[in-house]
Design goal:
The structure is a single chain. By secondary structure, this protein is α/β, with parallel strands linked by helices. Helix content is 38%, strand content 17%. β8 and β9 form a beta hairpin. It is globular. It binds manganese (II) ion. The site of manganese (II) ion (MN) has 6 residues, from loops.
């Protein structure tokens, strides 16, 4: 662990009084869970904090206590001295919240993406940690403050989502020791799992069905990809379905080294979001970086500003080049 970086962050938390806490657009378990964890930390050391997010908390995370306090605009008259920016490899990932990060505000960058640009006045980055939720746990421990069951749930949600239910390679012994302690605070993994992963809207399952029928494999089954078109999304009149798990299906095909998920924008057909997963050696962070995106070695993403056909061709060409080079 980068202890000096963590200490520098803790010093900033102690030094200031009024904070905003924010994370990336399209929030998921780690961004919401880590915001709630840092909110709890700041409250417990007697600070004022406001959680800000461009986008709403997704339905499956609204059971987390305090998630209703996450708002999209700064409260009237609140003048923060510092901003805790979580789970964002580049500052632009906060979206419109960036307008509140004026020059006089100290930016405290806490993240676990290997691609992090160290943009903070203070930056603490742990590429080996599963999640920012796991990092937050170490802040609690370091400050010697009690983790109540709400904070334990928030950190558990962050970790269980960012590790793909402890399936991904970012799950370490350290992750499990943290989770073991969180469970000892009285939380129920079964209930957490049910809330986060098994309260899906029926339409999500139907959409998954359509996406699965699009599955293609190439390069001797080393490359698998699926596509969600704008038309598929519009057919059923639903466009706000959570699709982040869909990439796990092509990834789970035997022998696949790289899986790709193409999702055509609903409002704007000239925008395609692309998710990558890899099993083993191929670093999809590098693939995504070639298109202005980023992430981790085995999980990354980028946004393409072209039509679906062009995005598919460009991305697959690049993935194939990586496969031929590395395998
Ligand atoms: Mn994360």
């Amino acid at each position: 662990m980068n202890n000096d970086e963590m200490q520098a962050v803790i010093e900033e938390l102690k030094k200031r009084d009024d904070f905003i806490i924010t994370a990336h657009v399209n929030p998921e378990g780690d961004s919401v869970g880590s915001q709630l964890a840092f909110f709890s930390i700041l409250k417990k050391i007697g600070k004022n904090a406001v959680m800000l997010s461009q986008d709403d908390v997704p339905d499956n995370l609204r059971f987390l206590a305090g998630s209703d306090l996450i708002r999209s605009a700064m409260p009237e008259g609140f003048r923060p001295a510092a901003a805790v920016v979580l789970d964002c490899p580049v500052i632009e990932r906060v979206g419109v919240i960036q307008k509140y990060l004026e020059d006089r505000i100290t930016v405290i960058n806490v993240d676990h993406h290997v691609s992090n640009e160290m943009y903070g006045d203070v930056s603490w980055v742990e590429p080996k940690m599963s999640s920012v939720g796991e990092m937050a746990y170490h802040v609690f421990k370091n400050l010697g403050i009690t983790i109540d069951s709400d904070a334990a749930r928030a950190m558990y949600a962050a970790i269980v989502t960012d590790t793909g239910m402890f399936n991904y390679n970012n799950t370490s012994g350290g992750t499990h020791r943290v989770v073991g302690d969180l469970i000892d605070k009285g939380i129920s993994p079964g209930l957490m799992h049910r809330e986060i992963f098994e309260e899906k809207p029926m339409m999500q399952i139907k959409m998954l069905g359509k996406v699965l029928t699009s599955t293609q494999v190439e390069e001797n089954d080393l490359l698998a990809y699926v596509t969600l078109t704008r038309k598929m999304q519009e057919e059923d009149g639903v466009t706000n379905i959570a699709t982040d798990e869909f990439i796990n299906y092509p990834r789970s095909i035997k022998g696949v080294a790289v899986a790709v998920f193409f999702k055509e924008g609903v409002n704007d057909g000239s925008q395609v979001s692309v998710s990558f997963r890899s099993n083993g050696r191929i670093n999809v962070n590098e693939v995504a970086a070639g298109f202005g995106g980023g992430g981790h070695k085995n999980a990354a993403g980028c946004l393409m500003y072209c039509d679906l056909a062009e995005a598919t061709r460009k991305v697959l060409d690049e993935v194939k080049r990586f496969i031929r080079e590395k395998i």
